[in-house]
């Protein structure tokens, strides 16, 4: 938004000059509606805790109109704030209902906005303070010569360092690289997926040796959940990853990992050679 | 003349390719007492501060590292390329919100900033300044974000506690005309007193 | 207290990725006289010799470099293990496939990646990031892989359900929607139910 606005501002300089002083705010300056509001409050020398909604709303709407006149796309976020301002203004205009609880009457409709503005202002300032620090790689540098002794021994492994984002990103770029027909179920919908359910069961079995069917569905008891959980169990059973038990007719269904830890270890030894 | 321990620690930190924590130094030098190591570390810091040379020992991201003093960056950049670029205002705002309010969801950041933050968030993730902490235990299980070790390293912060304090919030509590109490009564779900949102106070 | 030139040269040598020759230093600092630079270099050498710390300035291969003193080499080699090992792209990809598609066989991983994964898989097993879940009930009974508890620990995940989905990462790129106000409604603390009052559309 900021870049776009800046671009247009360059193009429309004569147009901007013709506007009333109040409108000629720097379009490239605002990082969003909160930023614009703070600017208007400061410009009008208002107390942030006692802002004149009428003044601010008028100037805010003028700004949006200016953006529209300049054919700038007005981001939805700016419109949401406009609506909020208008709503506060209309609440201020409403006559006080005598039947209402008196303490509710005293509530200033501006409070929520003021709280957000104060909080936003803090983070904006904190951001500037942080940004003014000497940054590593820009003002501050570390030693860059590799220590010969350590380079020689580099094949010794230290702790792993990788972020979750890198993991997802690796998967995403992989999927973008391979043809679409080679994979399935890439972006599961909001609905429950069997893969998710299998993963859930697998992680549960890492923590405990036996799991009861009922505990799997207790958080979210729905028809879909029961079916998906059941299908996931059947799939795990088919893969011989779990074994299922039922104590008596209509009793609880239990399942345990098909491979105990000990036998997994022995399999692992064998397979490391196989690989 | 410095003690041998002083010199050993200095050589360890000097050759490490990232900041070394006090714990790690104590592990590596298990023949020395922890207290003595701590004293030696303080001595090294003081020594470099006093001599005011080209570099100094600083504590960043929970570890010790030699770093050049900012005053000389215009000479250093003559032969070393700068890696970091200036951060945009929206990147800094978003970083500040994440740093002070973590763990935080995208929706919470956007509520505070009043704008969509997807793009900024992604770029902060790609720069490794922000990381995904997991998912929040609320309906929809949104991702929660926090700052990374790289964030502390790049901004030269010892830990999250050494972030600059948010002055304005304290000032806000002193403002009598701002009737937060009544607001809280009306909408109980908002009833997080402002000061408790500050994890570092 | 050292001269400014002393500190500037110190910072240059400290940040250089290989030894810096006197000529190179003079080129970089062309506002200073060559003789003064030479004097400062001698001062730095003397200063480090005198303090006898963990490292010193030495002239090697026609250039200046800070080197640790041999007396401390036995300590320095101890911290090789603090070097964080980064994942190779292929290890990361393989791990990602296993994480998101488990339970999965080696053939299925190789089908997705299009290359042999034996080596990578072995190293992931050795690092205990991946484990064998069992054998698949198909001809040949191939091994089935999944992620381990260590995997969750490294990534700081509570459980596999907390893995961010591709969709969630992709959502960061999406353009903000005008309909966002409806989203806000879902969370009562944000309830500014004003979408109907939008005068601008």
Structural account:
The complex is a heterotrimer, with 1 copy of chain A (275 residues) and 2 copies of chain B (201 residues). Chain A is mainly α and 275 residues long. Chain A is built from 13 helices and 4 strands. In chain A, strands 2-4-3 form a 3-stranded antiparallel sheet. The N terminus and C terminus of chain A are likely disordered. Chain B is an alpha+beta fold and 201 residues long. Chain B has 10 helices and 5 strands, in the order αααββααβααββααα. The longest helix of chain B is centred in the first third of the chain and has 18 residues. The two termini of chain B are 41 Å apart. In chain B, 42% of the residues are buried. The C terminus of chain B is likely disordered. Chains in contact: A-B, A-C, B-C. Chains A and C meet through helix 5, strand 1, helix 9, helix 10 and helix 13 of A and helix 1, strand 2, strand 3, helix 5 and helix 6 of C. Strand 1 of chain A pairs parallel with strand 3 of chain C.
Order of helices and strands of chain B: HHHEEHHEHHEEHHH
Secondary-structure element order of chain A, N to C: HHHHHHHHEHHEHHEEH
The average pLDDT score of chain B comes to: 82
- Going by CATH, what is the homologous superfamily of the largest domain in chain B? Winged helix-like DNA-binding domain superfamily/Winged helix DNA-binding domain
Spatial shape of chain B: globular
CATH architecture name of the largest domain in chain B? Orthogonal Bundle
Helix content of chain B: 40-55%
Query: Helix count of chain B?
Result: 10
Largest sheet of chain B: 3 strands, antiparallel
Specify the structural class of chain B: alpha+beta
Number of helices of chain A: 13
End-to-end CA span of chain A: 53 Å
Whole-angstrom Rg of chain A: 31 Å
In round numbers, the mean pLDDT of chain A is 71
Beta-strand content bin of chain A: 5-15%
**Biggest chain pair interface:** A-C, 73 and 84 residues
Poorly predicted runs of chain A are: 1-26, 182-189, 260-275
The coarse overall form of chain A would be: extended
């Amino acid at each position: 938004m900021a870049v776009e606005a800046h671009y247009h501002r360059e193009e429309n300089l004569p147009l901007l000059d013709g506007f009333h002083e109040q409108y000629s705010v720097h379009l490239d300056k605002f990082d969003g509606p909160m930023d614009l509001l703070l600017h208007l409050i400061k410009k009008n020398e208002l107390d942030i805790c006692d802002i004149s909604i009428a003044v601010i709303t008028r100037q805010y709407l003028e700004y949006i109109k200016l953006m529209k006149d300049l054919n700038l796309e007005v981001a939805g976020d700016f419109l949401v704030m406009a609506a909020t301002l208008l709503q506060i203004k209309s609440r201020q205009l409403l006559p006080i209902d005598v039947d209402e609880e008196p303490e509710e009457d005293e509530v200033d409709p501006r409070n929520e906005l003021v709280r957000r503005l104060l909080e936003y202002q803090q983070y904006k300032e904190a951001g500037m303070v942080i940004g003014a620090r000497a940054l590593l790689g820009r003002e501050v540098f570390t030693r860059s010569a590799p220590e010969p002794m350590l380079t020689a021994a580099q094949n010794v492994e230290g702790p792993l360092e990788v972020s979750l984002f890198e993991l997802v990103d690796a998967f995403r770029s992989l999927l973008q690289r391979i043809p679409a027909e080679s994979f399935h179920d890439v972006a599961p919908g909001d609905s429950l997926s069997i893969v998710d359910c299998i993963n859930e069961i697998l992680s549960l079995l890492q923590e405990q040796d036996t799991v009861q069917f009922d505990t799997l569905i207790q958080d979210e008891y729905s028809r879909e959940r029961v079916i998906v959980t059941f299908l996931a169990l059947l799939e795990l059973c088919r893969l011989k990853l779990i074994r299922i038990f039922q104590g008596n007719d209509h009793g609880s269904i239990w399942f345990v990992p098909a491979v105990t830890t000990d036998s997994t270890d022995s399999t692992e030894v064998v397979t490391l050679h196989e690989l | 003349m410095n003690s041998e321990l002083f010199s050993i620690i200095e050589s360890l930190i000097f050759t490490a390719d990232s900041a070394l924590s006090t714990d790690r130094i104590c592990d590596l030098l298990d023949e020395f007492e922890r207290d003595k190591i701590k004293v030696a570390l303080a001595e090294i810091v003081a020594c470099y501060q006093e001599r005011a040379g080209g570099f100094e020992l600083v504590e960043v991201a929970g570890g010790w590292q030699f770093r050049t003093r900012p005053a000389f960056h215009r000479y250093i950049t003559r032969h070393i390329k700068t890696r970091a670029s200036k951060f945009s205002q929206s990147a800094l705002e978003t970083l500040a919100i994440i740093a002070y309010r973590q763990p935080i969801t995208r929706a919470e950041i956007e509520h505070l900033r009043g704008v969509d933050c997807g793009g900024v968030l992604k770029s902060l993730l790609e720069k490794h300044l922000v990381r995904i902490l997991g998912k929040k235990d609320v309906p929809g299980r949104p991702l929660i974000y926090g700052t990374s070790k790289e964030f502390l390293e790049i901004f030269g912060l010892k830990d999250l506690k050494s972030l600059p304090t948010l002055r304005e919030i304290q000032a806000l509590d002193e403002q009598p005309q701002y009737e937060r109490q009544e607001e809280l009564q009306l909408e109980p779900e908002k009833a997080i007193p402002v000061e408790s949102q500050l994890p570092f106070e």
